[in-house]
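REQUEST FORM: STRUCTURE PREDICTION
Request ID: SP-0412
Submitted by: Lab K.M.
Chain count: 1
Length (residues): 423
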Amino acid sequence: MRDLILGGVLLWLMIKALRHPWIGIMGWTWVSIMNPHTYSWVLNSLPVAAAMAGSTLVGIFATKDKIHYFVSRETGVLMLFMLWMCITLPFSFFFDRSFDLWVRVMKIDFMILVALAVLYTRQHIFALTWVLVGSLGFYGVKGGLFTFATGGSYRVWGPEGSYIEGNNEVALALVMTIPLIRFLQLNASNKWMRRGLGLAMLLCAASALGSQSRGALLAIAAMTLVLWWRGKNKAQMGLLLLVLGAALVIFMPDSWTERMSTIKTYEQDTSAGGRINAWWMAFNLASHNFFGGGFMVSAGTLFALYAPDPLDVHAAHSIYFMVLGEHGFVGLFIFLLLWFFVWRSAGRLYREGRKKPETQWFSDLGAMCQVSLVGYLVGGAFLSLSYYDLPYNIMILVVLACRLMDGKVKEPLPSAPQRPRLA
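STATUS: Completed
RESULT:
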């Protein structure tokens, strides 16, 4: 029964994508982020993502919907990053393994560009946000309930076979999702919807803590600080965040506290030492190879050449050193430039959207996208999620909202609903 229902929903999305490609983008995002087909016995082995992408691309040529081809500074830098990865690919130390990951990354980035062409209205922005929140919130709510039910004694893991399969990766994805849930809560008119979204945020935070990821804890701390700084009632919000944070931490078992305390004594932690060794390896590799080493450079032969400790072979576990080792200093510069531009555009949404009540949702979106990016940029310093879809979907939200706010889309801007007053 589950296979029939899920298969029917996916087939319906593919058919609708032939007439309305933006629906295909929603289906692609759902499949790519949540991997729902992995819960099916039959669909698990089928190329569901490729079929959804194919339906969307066919729909672009068959649809009567408007298609907006444009280049912003963010999309320009993303295309430059894609071009640079194509240039560095032939210089890979392990071409066969690099090529497989290169294909996967190119597919993701290409569909990001497709999404920017077919999405352009306020409805599209909110729909994409709901898809992202629903896809990852599913794991956050489930993991949060599991954490409370087990007293935090077991780790929360992500969906098998995905980018966020590991406990650290799923924790960061959930941390980045919390601000998006907050954006929807700020713009929800139904009080029960707002309460449900508030509960979802709490469970996602509990799930992230239940993963026992130290990087996620640092990301949550950084995001909480930004949320407090952006809030209007700093004293009230600070007290609420402090009480909720303390309650969650006190609930966790001693094993969790002992693991988190190793942040202060990272010199004695073998895992942290292995990461630092991998960071030096990436730096030395990039210093000697202008084009980097290509994808998948965590190999003993390269550690023997470039690492301080050639026997301690680890993945970089850092979005920065991962890009540095794989694509050199030029690749790292382009990668950082992309997120700098996204951050600046989100900040402009936050500032300019506050000027009028009807554009307040722009401000909400910009602020929460910045908070989510803080989680990514802080937590990503300790995790290998350089090419994960979610940050690039946040870029989509920011770029589309800027185009709407600037009036670059000829489609009339729908009036925003009255924003509810929240305590």
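NOTES: Residues 70 and 117 are 7 Å apart (CA to CA).
Reviewed by: T.R.
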